[in-house]
Specification:
- The strands form 5 sheets. Strands 1, 2, 3, 4, 5, 6, 7 and 8 form an 8-stranded antiparallel β-sheet that branches. A 3-stranded mixed β-sheet has the order 10-13-12. Strands 16-15-17 form a 3-stranded mixed β-sheet, with helices on one face.
- Helix 2 packs antiparallel against helix 3.
- Helices cover about 15% and strands about 40% of the residues.
- The radius of gyration is 23 Å and the shape is globular.
- The chain folds into 3 domains: about 100 residues, Baseplate protein-like domain - beta roll fold (Phage tail proteins - horseshoe like beta roll fold, Roll), CATH 2.30.300.10; about 70 residues, Baseplate protein-like domains (Phage tail protein beta-alpha-beta fold, 3-Layer(bab) Sandwich), CATH 3.55.50.10; about 80 residues, no CATH class.
- It is built from 5 helices and 18 strands.
């Protein structure tokens, strides 16, 4: 029987570098986050012949497009490709004994002002999707918006970079954001969770162990919201859930619809992560729709 093996193919700054780097990769790690942070990769490269310190010396912002390739994983002769996305080199370091390089890259568009340039701007009579299109356009990436849109009368971006501003705005309305493959992705975790499981895992799938944790700290049974908009001389009041453990919130809103969205998002965000599970298992390609 042919042995299982995993390799990494690599497009580096638009050129296929798979053969050149194949003999140098000591390890490769890919982190795919649900939301709130950037996907990332880390590669440890041996540098026995000083190529990485010399002609292959990286530059921050270099573009990497890695694909994990699995051979004979579940059947002899099988080849499975797992595209990881597009990444920009963010950090790298060298060490000796033996010589090696640690290379870190993130999915953020590192060559633009998305994370580095603070700006002040007012958005009026816009939607969350329209603001996202403007932010994505400045970053030179596309927007993928998979959620119900939110109408926004007025919002200020006050001396913030686009990444922090739009991430906070998305979270304020109960949605999630991540960057994948040169796309700004906005989606509703609640909608995705309501679709039901793609796979059901059992202890037989765990290799070798697992942990499960839950906590009552931070769990709210409901929310009470009240905010007075002085410009409109109106007070918006929202109450949802039960009285046992109420979260209070008074973030600014311009109308009752926006106030309701803010209140529900606040309690859902506060309750997220109160039950977690961590497990190790052998790679299962079907867990991701990206595999081909």
């Amino acid at each position: 029987m042919l042995p299982r093996r995993a390799t990494v193919s690599m497009i580096y700054n638009g050129a296929n570098a798979t053969e050149q780097v194949a003999g140098y990769i000591n390890s490769f790690e890919y982190t795919d986050v649900a939301s709130g942070r950037s996907d990332s990769i880390r590669a440890v490269m041996n540098d026995r012949d000083n190529r990485w310190k010399g002609p292959w010396f990286p530059v921050k912002g270099d573009k990497m497009v890695p694909t994990i390739v699995l051979y004979n994983w579940t059947a002899p002769g099988q080849v499975i490709h797992f595209p990881c996305g597009t990444f920009g080199v963010d950090d790298f370091s060298f060490s000796g004994g033996p010589d090696k390089m640690n290379l870190d890259a993130i999915a953020l568009p590192t060559s633009t002002s998305f994370k580095s340039e603070d700006r002040t701007e007012t958005y009026e009579q816009a939607t969350l999707q329209e603001i996202g299109q403007k932010v994505a356009g400045r970053a030179g990436i596309a927007l993928f918006f998979d959620a119900s849109d939110v109408a926004i009368e007025k919002v200020e971006q006050n001396n913030q970079n686009d990444c922090d501003f739009y991430s906070g705005l998305v979270e304020k309305y109960g949605l999630s954001l991540k960057i994948y493959n040169d796309r700004l992705v906005v989606f509703s975790e609640a909608d995705y969770e309501a679709r039901g499981p793609k796979f059901i895992l059992t202890p037989a799938d765990f290799d070798p162990g697992w942990t499960w944790d839950t906590t009552l700290t931070g769990i709210y049974t409901g929310v009470r919201y009240q905010y007075t908009n002085s410009d409109k001389n109106k007070t918006f009041t929202v109450k949802a859930g039960t009285e046992e453990r109420l979260l209070t919130n008074n973030e600014p809103a311009d109308n009752l619809t926006e106030a309701t969205a803010i209140a529900l998002a606040a309690v859902n965000n506060a309750n997220r992560g109160t039950t977690t599970m961590s497990l190790t298992m052998m790679a299962r390609p079907g867990l991701s729709p990206r595999t081909r």
